[in-house]
Design brief:
By secondary structure, this protein is an alpha/beta fold. The chain contains 5 helices and 6 strands.
Length: 233
């Protein structure tokens, strides 16, 4: 079924296509997608490999509250707006190779997030809002040279299956623990918190997703995510 199936929505489609054409011919650091009725367009937003420097210009993120996938890989983002928290259904977020130094406190409200890629940014320390993302199964923090320690609170993420960090740089936990794998590292953090290590072995709630929400093979290739992330949708 087409996204635009009447005269009104056809106007939205024309407006979006016009803005896309302008963006290609005369790239600007602010990509304005306001007034395009994006809430009806898609549950997958693929904006990787552009020159986007912020998400504050044009439109409102609340219009994208049905979004499941957001790929902003290889852009120029130095910060995220607090309104990112409005994407409460978001499951996959790829922010690899940007210029992020921190995450907003409201980031902790992305309660459905399963896959978070923050590789190759400029994070000055471990972003604490991540410790409230209890559905998180995949986290990549590699190539953020200033991150040299993990908070004990990370042990709260019992669903976490894959954690990617630059172990050789780490002071806490020490390198030997960090190179031993995610399970060993999480067990250590639980011991430090005085809690039992109880990994969540239940399947993600996304396993009950309807077929039309599943990623196709072209989607997987385009998204450039790991196979694990594709299983969430």
């Amino acid at each position: 079924m087409p996204f635009w199936n009447d005269s009104k929505t056809q106007n939205y489609k024309a407006k979006l296509e016009h803005k896309m054409c302008i963006a290609k011919e005369a790239p600007d650091e602010n990509f304005d997608l306001s007034d395009c009725n994006l809430s009806d367009v898609s549950r997958r937003s693929l904006l990787q490999h552009n020159h986007i420097s912020n998400l504050n210009s044009g439109g409102s993120l609340k219009d994208l509250n049905q979004l499941l996938i957001l790929n902003l890989k290889n852009n120029k983002l130095s910060s995220l707006p607090s309104e990112i928290s409005l994407l409460t259904k978001l499951k996959v977020l790829d922010l690899e190779n940007n210029q992020l130094k921190k995450l907003p406190p409201s980031f902790e409200n992305l309660v459905s997030l399963c896959h978070l890629n923050l590789k190759s940014n400029k994070l000055v320390h471990f972003p604490m809002p991540i410790c409230s993302l209890y559905a998180l199964e995949y986290l990549n923090l590699s190539d953020n040279p200033k991150i040299k320690s993990l908070p004990k609170e990370l042990s709260n993420l019992s669903a976490l299956k894959e954690l990617h960090i630059d172990a050789e740089r780490f002071i806490y936990p020490n390198k030997d623990i960090c190179v031993s794998g995610t399970e060993t590292l999480m067990k250590f953090l639980c011991e430090e918190m005085g809690t039992d290590y109880t990994p969540n072995t239940t399947k993600s709630s996304s396993s009950s997703a309807t077929p039309d929400e599943d990623l196709t093979e072209p989607d997987k290739k385009l998204m450039e995510f790991s196979p694990l992330s594709a299983s969430y949708l």
